[in-house]
Structure formats: C-alpha cells, structure tokens
Amino acid sequence: MEDQDKAPDSWENPQKVLVILAHPDDPEFFCGGTTARWVKAGHQVSYCVITCGDKGTKDLLIGSPELCSIRQAEQSSAAKVLGVNEIKFLNYPDGYLVPDLNLRRDITRVIRTVRPDILVTCDPQTLFTQNGGLNHPDHRAAGQATLDAVFPAARDHLNFVELWKDEKLEPHIVREVWVAGTLQPNVTLDVTDTWEVKLKALFEHKSQIGEPDKFEERMRNRRAPDSTAEKPRYEEKFRRLILG
Ligand SMILES: [Zn+2]
Fold first, then answer.
1. 88 close to 51: Cβ distance less than 8 angstroms
2. Distance 26 CA to ligand 1 centre (A)
3. Residues 129-146: what's their mean pLDDT?
4. What is the percent of the chain with per-residue pLDDT over 90, rounded to a whole number?
C-alpha cells in the first residue's frame, strides 16, 4: 500500500481541480480513479469537455446533434458518480479539433473563470498509445491548446487582452498541471480503492462501451503488472508539472 502522506497528491488544503479533455468519457477513461480519489479526499473537481463527441457511433440512424445530447447526458451522469457536479461543455465538433487561437482563447477563458489550483489535461505528444494504437487527434489538439492556455495565455493580461478588458477576467497562474495519457509519467497514483467507482462511472457512457461484460473484463485486466487477478492493484500515471 502506498503511504498517503508521501503521495504526490497529499496537499495540506482542499484543492480546486479542473480537468480539461476532448470528449465526453475522456475524464473517466484518463483519470476517473484519480478524480474519485481526490473528491474522497475533499478536493473540488470540475470538468471542461471540449467537443460534443458527436461522431462516436457506428449506429447509422443517429445524427451528430442527437449523439451530442446523448453523450453530454452520459457525461453528466458519469461525473455525478465520481462526485463532479460542474461541467462546462465547449461544444466543438468531434474529430475536427485543432489547437488554434480560438480554442486557446476559449480554454483561457475557462481557466480564468474557474481559477484552478490543479489542472489535468492529456499529453499532446502521444501519437502512438501505450497499447500500440494511434492516439485520437482531438486528444493531441486538446492537450496542446490547454497547455498553451495555461502558459502563457492565462497568466498574462495582454494575452487575449479582450478577456481582461471586456470580460473582466483577471490573469491566473495554475499551480500544478497533471498530464494524463503520457508516455513519460513522473507520478503514479494507486487508484485501487476507487477503481470500482471509476468503472461505475464508465458504465454511464452506455453509447460508448459496447457489451458491458466484455468492457468490464477489459477494464479489470488493466491491473498493475506486479499484481494478481485475485488481488489486483490499479494505477493512473501522469506527468506532473509544478508551475506556481
Ligand atoms: Zn477521447
């Protein structure tokens, strides 16, 4: 068992955490165990989900607007399971995300509004995933735009000066960034205690998980390699940057 006092997230005071990722279901897949662990420890977590996830179906009878509402409803239910009650949906179309200045401005606005101590996003450098697949281009774009918004756009008032002048949003320094979905982690959290609630949250994404039994088996098999099927241990890994 990990010593909680020495864990990298053993902050003294309750923290405000903002998770910014591309699709409905990304927060649960990338860091659901960690979110549940942080909520349990008294931290306040909110989400910003950039796209509608409106291309994620093989059902020929569902169009993008309908899928968008299904996926946002699923995201809200999943977040509730983890104890996350605040979600901002930026409603960008799924699959076409590019890390341009409009996206960077929109994310800067969210950061300056929420003013998090800790921000979680994903690694834009991950082209090939750990398990031999291709990373979704939206994940790379979301990670890039979010990191670019953290530094320097959210920090400096002359960056997107209209946010400061017209919208009265003061600059904000994010103290720590936790980058999920990275091939270069420097922090590992034990999330064995919250793996069940992560699974429960993922089950809310009914349109995404296929056959629930097979999905559950796949997720249970994602145990740490030094653990056994009888006594599994689960981990989530991040690259942690301390900026403030
Ligand atoms: Zn995704």
1. no
2. 5
3. 96
4. 96
